[in-house]
Specification:
about 0% strand, single chain, about 110 residues, about 65% helix, mainly alpha, globular
Length: about 110
């Protein structure tokens, strides 16, 4: 399902990670794909409340957890810069879909990075 939210389609997700040679583009691409898939799920499922949104963001966070090994294998890691960038993108997604009161820490609660 193509994403219809204009705020999302125009967003250069994970820009800070792409700008740094420390983060391999092929792994960042996978993270970007996770975020875009999250947006598609939000548009398809239309969560009615924060609990519904958090269920979707938690699943996406688990996908980022799985990317840690790929970052490591490429000589990188999800460090403080990456954590801030990823968390900020989750917050952007929540706001873009009308959940301005979403708690950033709750959006990514199951993170282990």
């Amino acid at each position: 399902m193509p994403i219809s939210n204009a705020y999302v389609t125009g967003r250069p997700f994970l820009r800070a990670l792409y700008r740094s040679d420390y983060y391999p583009d092929h792994v960042v691409d996978r993270g970007r794909a996770v975020l875009l898939a999250l947006c598609a799920r939000i548009e398809a499922d239309r969560p009615a409340d924060l609990a519904g949104l958090y269920a979707l963001t938690h699943a996406a966070t688990e996908e980022f957890n799985a990317l840690q090994d790929e970052f490591g294998a490429a000589g990188s890691e999800i460090d403080t810069v990456a954590r801030d960038e990823i968390g900020g993108e989750f917050h952007f997604v929540a706001r873009a879909y009308g959940f301005a009161d979403a708690d950033v820490e709750e959006l990514i609660a199951p993170r282990d990075w």
